[in-house]
Amino acid sequence: MREFRRDPIVGRWVIISSERAHRPFAFSKTEREEDPPNTCPFCWGNEKFTPPEIVAIREPHSSKDTPGWSIRVIPNKYPALKVEGELIKSADGIYDKITGIGAHEVIIETPQHNFDLYQMSKTNVENILKIYRDRILDLKKDIRFEYILIFKNCGKQAGATLTHPHSQLIALPMIPIIIKQELIGSENYFYYKERCIYCDIINEELNKNLRVISENEDFIAICPYASRFPFEIWILPKRHDPMYEDIQDKEISNLASIIQLINKKLNLALEKPPYNYILHTSPLKQYNLSHYHWHIEIMPQLSGVGGFEWGSGFYINPIPPEEATKFLIET
pTM surpassing 0.90? Predict the structure, then answer.
């Protein structure tokens, strides 16, 4: 099967070309590399090798920056941006620049060195999701910040420098271009249809049931119609809300359940692939958007991006999302 598919949100075209899956090395099945725990600064007993913790979930009577924690949030030791300083915008000839102000935090998700999300207790995953919410609520008080991106790189092939389970948060003084594209596309759809495009996608997928991997009372997990990558997955809340920080504790419980299920299926079906997941939420100063809908995107790193992709903006996906969905359901 060869066909173009258009993403209904940003208007991006994707090429679905299943014949390319038959090429040698069409996508890697290499397992994630793992570091030995005795050298890991994120393990219990090595807290002195990290910056002082910002917040942690701890055993009673345990002290800050010592063992006894189940989740620990620290500043990134090698931050892309720093909180300290003044936000200054200036011109450099025809170019624009802004001082590198922001926040860069690491959420160490568990003391267990080589655990993935499905191997953790559900309570632990719920607490990770609550920390995401709490850190957004805290950092949005800083008026310099326009957007907070939370993401996870799992495996060195996905950009992780350490294999110990962790995710990251970066607060930015501007809105990323990808989020702007989603906002513009969803606003255009709302202008013509007076409905949220994400809500319509949820209804369409539930009605057709071709790309739904799993659902529960509050969430749905799908392989999107115009998937850019093999086994790309979106997790969307059924309740319309643009802001992740609005999430309720009951919803967090159901989100933890579906994340663990999807994570387990990916690990079993694809033999522990490297992957990225990204939380897309609304900008910090744009409230109650009728056209936007927070969501999580999960992308296993199975195929490379080459010159055609970089030069054209098209992605070539060798696995139709319907086939990927069927494979994951049966796993």
Answer: yes
